[in-house]
Amino acid sequence: MAKELYNTPNLDELEKGPWPSFVTGLKRLASDSHKGADMARDVLGTLETSYVTKKGYWKGGTVGVIGYGGGIIPRFNELKDDNGDYKFPAAGEFHTLRIQPPAGMHYTSTLLRDMCDMFVDNGGSGLIAFHGQSGDIMLQGATEETTQTIFNEFNAYGFDLGGAGPAVRTGMSCVGASRCEMSNTNEQAVLRTLVNAFLDDMHRPALPYKMKFKVSGCANDCMNSVQRADFATIGTWRDDIKINQDLFKAMVADKGTQYVVDNITSRCPTSCMTLNDDNSLTIDNKNCVKCMHCLNVTSPLTHNYIAKGDVEPILATGDDKGVMIIMGGKRTLKIGDLFGSVIVPFMKMDNADDLEAIEDLAGEVIDFFAENALEHERTGEMIERIGVVNFLEGIGVNVDPNMINSTRTSSYVRMDDWDEEAVKWFENKAEANA
Amino acid sequence: MAAAPIMPIESGVPDPIQYMHPTMRRNYGQWAYHDRPRAGVLHHTSKNNEEIFTVRCGTARQMDVYTIKKLADIADEFADGYVRFTMRSNVEFMVSDGSKVDALVSALTEAGFPVGGTGPSVTMISHTQGWLHCDIPGTDASGVVKSLMDEMHEEFTREEMPNRVHMTTSCCQINCGGQGDIALNIQHTKPPKINHDLVSMVCERPTVVARCPVAAIRPAMVNGKPTLEVDEKKCICCGACFPPCPPMQINDPENSKIALWIGGKNSNARSKPSFHKLVASNLPNNPPRWPEVGAVVKNILSVYKEDARDWERVGEWVDRIGWPAFFEKTGLPFTKFHINDWKGSRHQLNSSAHIRF
Questions:
Q1: What are the C-alpha distances in Å from A131 to residues A63, A135, A162, B112?
Q2: CA A114, CA A137: separation in Å to the nearest integer?
Q3: CA distances from residue B276 to A135, A349, B239, B260, B266 in whole angstroms, order as listed
Q4: DSSP state, A416?
Q5: Would you call A106 and B246 a contact, using CB atoms and an 8 Å cutoff?
Q6: What residues are paired with B309 via a beta bridge?
């Protein structure tokens, strides 16, 4: 029989209103008879205390599963009475298991139910976050003892722990090829190649700090990789945008010239689009930066003009697809915000050899990072400290003008081997064209 | 002899194909275009002339197993048994038969899951753990988000914004919530309060000294015990010392405030990605509903909705109209704190004759 719930007047306020309430969910768990119900009940008590005092009451510690050094977020309750006993004993421990989801976060109803049962039947609280900011399924609410049994069952089912601490972290890839016309690569395959090649660095944290992989299929970057990933892979293409001129003209006739100029051609960041007198479109493709805007606007309009059975949209991505790699993104601490910057402007990603090439590059980056970053320093901060040129030499990548917004404005640099560097440029170019 | 422990199977990221809707599997990499028949519904057509409809709805992110099983039941009864999550914790149900969409939308709405979050809407706020589970939070996350999403519920279910609005919240200045069109982050305003009795037992002192962005921490002796002290004139109250040294308590019920930042953008569409920028601070950390924060967010959103052009994200809108106009239109105060003085920030000053009158 479930115990009576604590009085939680503050949290009760969060049961009002139209948006789904996590408090209602927690109360449902706390009122139930499963093994972890008391933990949910005492978590509510702890959280209500936070709402009154405006303080947090969880501290870290060391909890893990056999064979791994990371992947569990330990939480011990700091609310204790004068005797040092937990005020909310059933929530004395409230650990989280980070579980890596299927790439692209696809689930069947059976998988969802089985995950719920595996968690609750082994003593978990029953609170699950889909998903944490790194992209993990977070099973929130286990004790040191139940952590192992819950993990064993998930692991036998085909799921593995994610990353925590100074380690390769759980990655994310977008919906991509499975349901998006903007996709330029096999996003989930790239993500699984990258993360699954470095599971040792995920499960046994020994890097200077975290290392995150994210994969977005186009420059819309739905995975926010440029800002959050040490190693961001973004799909793109090198050839021309495909234009269905008949549909484009039909759109201009319908929406009007002003709409098309205001929302499509004049919004192009490189002014590479011309609306012609006959309502057709010309694109200076050598000057297109694949920003995605014109495709974003026209894809949802296509259905208005396309004939039944036709599948060529108003505008479409090209055929010579691949990825670019942007490295070093992270947020504030410690040196200030850093976007990632271009390290590889283009690389084909069509077959197993291409996947192996990106895996090799990631290996070089992780090795260099492990050797050269300071403790608690992310890839971007390391690049900032040592300079991108040293980083490029370290990972064996040649300089490329796509890496910069502008060339140097300061003359304070020693350039006595200029001629050798100039020769390298021409040699590398000749090699690339060979 | 004791049984050998079970060693983990290091299987890594699971293959998603086995959990993917069959229409998505069949048309993998073959999608041609899409449209949105209504807010919350996507309709994709493939080069093989197959179609799939997606109905998107919001969740609380932190869900109890009964809520998750309810989603599974709806997937079985009204969809084809498949779902996927977006990175903003929305859940998507896929059906290959468009005639199933209306019943699915009704079932979700009746079960309390708001349908929306597509196109130019205010979608779910990506957020962090807060008081529920984090070890260093200045505020809650789920509660702030619940309060704000209640306020903006209608904008989630409609597509009436100039472009999509991606919001984030973060419970400390590490900013795990990430960049956002509007970001709500804790901003501490007082230096850490140090428990000198505990520092030498709990903290690796050189690590803590090294963590400070402004070199304000130095070793010291207090009451005969080795500890750390903070030069409060240099301290920027960022809280970087608190995670490696919990006795340096940065969270303060009254003096940890909430700041609002706008214009973060990850997409490369039109303009390059941009960081969010400070617009308001010193808002009270006021559970359980944070009304003062909600009021400023709604103010900014309503001005943006009224004033921005189609497709302009919040940051692009301000870039076009200029910061003086932003402060005039929103009525928010402009202060010396809005001017960035962190290293490398001088390029954020207006070094031109470009002034709007």
A1: 21, 5, 12, 20
A2: 14
A3: 22, 32, 20, 9, 10
A4: T
A5: no
A6: none
Place of tokens 């006739």: A253
Distance between CA atoms of residues B135 and B250, nearest Å: 12
Q: A212: cis peptide before it, omega within 30°?
A: no
Q: What pLDDT, in 10s, does the model give residues A249-272?
A: 999 999 999 999 999 999 999 999
Shortest distance between the Cα of A352 and any Cα of chain B, in A, equals 16
Burial (0-12, 13-18, 19+ Cβ within 10 Å), B313: buried
Residue B135 near residue A59 (C-beta atoms within 8 A): yes
Q: Give chain A's mean pLDDT.
A: 97
Q: What is the value of ipTM here, to two decimals?
A: 0.96
| Residues of chain B with C-beta less than 8 angstroms from the C-beta of A300 | 33-36, 119
Q: Is B291 helix (H, G, I), strand (E, B) or coil?
A: helix
pLDDT digits (tens, 9 = 90+) for B293-310: 999 999 999 999 999 999
Rounded distance between C-alpha atoms, residue A146 and residue A379, angstroms = 35
- pLDDT the model gives residue B110: 98
- H-helix or E-strand spanning residue A63: none
Cross-chain Cβ contact B16/A102 below 8 Å: yes
Half-sphere exposure of A16 (CA within 13 A, CB side): 9
Tens of pLDDT along B233-286? 999 999 999 999 999 999 999 999 999 999 999 999 999 999 999 999 999 999
pLDDT tens for each residue of B45-71: 999 999 999 999 999 999 999 999 999
Asked if B163 contacts B313 with a C-beta cutoff of 8 angstroms, the reply is yes
- Residue A2 confidence (pLDDT): 65
Judge: B68–A116 Cβ closer than 8 Å, yes or no: yes
Q: Please name the residue of chain B whose CA is at the shortest distance from the CA of residue A30.
A: B64
H or E segment to which residue A226 belongs: helix A225-228
Prior bond to B288 cis, omega within 30?
A: yes
Asked if A160 and B12 come within 8 Å (Cβ–Cβ), the reply is yes
Kindly list the residues from chain A whose CB atom is less than 8 angstroms away from the CB atom of residue B62: 22, 25, 127-129, 140
- Could you read off the pLDDT of A326-374 as tens digits, one per residue? 999 998 888 888 999 999 999 999 999 999 999 999 999 999 999 999 9
Q: Collapsing DSSP states into helix, strand and coil, what is residue B108?
A: helix
Closest residue in A to B211 (Cα) is A334
What tokens appear for A433 in the block? 């064209």
Distance between CA atoms of A104 and B86, rounded to whole angstroms? 8
CA B345 to chain centre: 24
